[in-house]
Structure prediction request, 303 residues.
Amino acid sequence: MLALICLGNLTLDDIVHPDGCVHERCIGGDALYGVLAARLFESASEMVAPIGRDFPGDIRARIDAEGLSPDGLPARDCPTLHTRIVYQSADHREVTLLSDEADFEILSPDQADVPARYWDARAFMILAMTLNAQRALIAACRARGSGLIALDPQEEYIEGNEAAVLDLVTRVDVFMPSLAEVKRLLGHEDGPRAARDFARLGPKIVVIKMGARGALVYDAQEDFSFLQPAYAAAAVDTTGSGDAFCSAFMASLMEPGHCLRQAAAAGAAAASFALSAYGAEGLFAATPDEAALRRDRLLAAVE
Prediction:
């Protein structure tokens, strides 16, 4: 049985740093960041992410070499999603979609893209994509699967859709917003208060990502929360670090006997690889042994 299915997008990203240095066409996308991070802790993880007609063959070969199933990469007759990410500082960036907005919808997965055997997975990670795609996938996961459903919202679509996003929160088991998304949804940045407010809507677990400050993890059933510190690492490109955190968290949670603290430490360890290089290169280079070592260092520091 598969442990985790990461559902999202694949992109090519042009990354611009504050000094004007540009790295063009870095392979990225939340589904790729997510599944590479998840597989550091649980090899029985797959992704579902449609690919455009011009998706680079060399990148496809690298994905295949990771042992990921081609069944989760349905082809679409449109160009690969292309974004421009401009950093004003290490912790502030602006993301511009260079592709047509309609292509973003087309290149977001739907339930028809999910292989039949994936519905038996123990968990589904719904990563940031269009609101319509997330809504449809959550409904399908609830109707066709029996695994936990985790949601990572997308900041850009929240304004004007707050009620719709909060409705999605009622339908998932794990809600994993960033602090910026908390502010857009609730109008404040009080993490403990927000975690309890979200949990009242239904999720058993709420995780609020706070960048370099770590993540707040709240267990609604035990009414217990803790702060997971970030793993200290030089930040080269923070794109995808949140996707890596969420997916590694969920993958670790699926491991027998693992608790929230272990899952949170796994998420922080995975995020540290994601931000260590441009695009997904840091995660491609990481190994499960290195990831476990970083996770265990974080756990030891807490103890």
Summary: The chain has one domain: 4-302. The chain has a mean pLDDT of 95.
